[in-house]
Amino acid sequence: MFNWDDLNYFLTLSRTGKLNLASKKLKVESTTISRRVARLENKLNLELFIKSPKGYFLTEIGSELLKHVERIENEVYGINENFLGSNLSIKGKVRLSVGEGLGVEIISKNLYKFYKLYPDIEIELLADTKLRSLSNRETDILISFSQPLKGRLKTWKICDYFVNLYGTKHYLDNHNKIESIKDLKKHDFVSYVNEFIEFPELNYLNDLKINANIKFSSNNLRSQFLAVKNNIGLGLLHSFIADKEPELKKVLENQINIKREYWMIVHENSFQLQRIKVVCKFITDIIRENF
Questions:
Q1: pTM surpassing 0.70?
Q2: What separation in angstroms does the CA of 12 have from each of 15, 20, 171?
């Protein structure tokens, strides 16, 4: 008979890849995790990890075991969620990863509606441009810019959104006239920092097919908005945010209208949990209401 604690130590180490990180997550000593994993390997007479100075990496058989343990984990979560507690209310923590613009401007501003329905759910909102793993439980729900081509995932398209080129009236009045895309070569731009773009869909400048003169770059969307509003340069910005700013004017509106997509992505095991389902539904509905 397997001990769930041993399996849980194996699961956490497989996701973190390092004993010290697994130790912090489980709040036990590293030696305890190492000992429990070794006991599991001895019981199975199998090598589950390849150990190196860089960390712990699953062997092929370890990856197979992980699939089974994740199913067990899901059942354990389901028992806790559905049968523990006197009122059987939906509760627990849900981590949501989403781009900064959508996370701050749409989701955060509407969360009060969610908590009226589900006061016992804790949402952790990671609003940035970092790609996080669902299989490693770095996040429970990922809102991405494209549909993944593989994996044990539950996915659906939420909506389209558009990116346009913006500048202030002051900037446009005091710089070379813009009548076509080729005129943009004479202008300064605000953009993302290329090396920190983990989603290629965010590299909007590629769609213009020009060698843009980037004056200021940031991995923070709010910083880009402020830079454009303070006349540092032109910027390709989310229209659902920039259109609300009266000082920002669209540039070449009939020529530049970049379309992107938002996709909801959840691991198929996690999607069986009630708290994940209600967050997914609420976020999907609230985004569609605003687009």
A1: yes
A2: 5, 11, 52
What CA–CA distances, in Å, run from 108 to 101, 136, 165, 188, 216?
10, 25, 25, 32, 27
The token duo for 182 is: 């080729």
CATH of residue 97's domain is: 3.40.190.10
Provide the pLDDT confidence category of residue 87 given band limits of 50, 70 and 90: very low
Same domain, 165 and 244: yes
Indicate if 75 and 138 belong to the same structural domain.
no
In a domain, 114, yes or no: yes
Which helix (H) or strand (E) covers residue 240, if one does? Answer: helix 239-242
- Residue 267 CA to its chain's centroid (Å): 13
196 SS3 class: helix
Q: Which residues contact 286 (CB under 8 A, 6 or more apart)?
A: 106, 107, 110, 113
Task: Kindly tell me the sign of the dihedral angle through the C-alpha atoms of 13, 17, 18, 22.
Answer: negative
SS3 243: coil
pLDDT digits (tens, 9 = 90+) for 213-224: 999 999 999 999
Which residue did the predictor score with more confidence, 73 or 94? 94
HSE, side-chain direction, 13 A CA sphere, residue 113: 13
Q: Say how many domains are in the chain.
A: 3
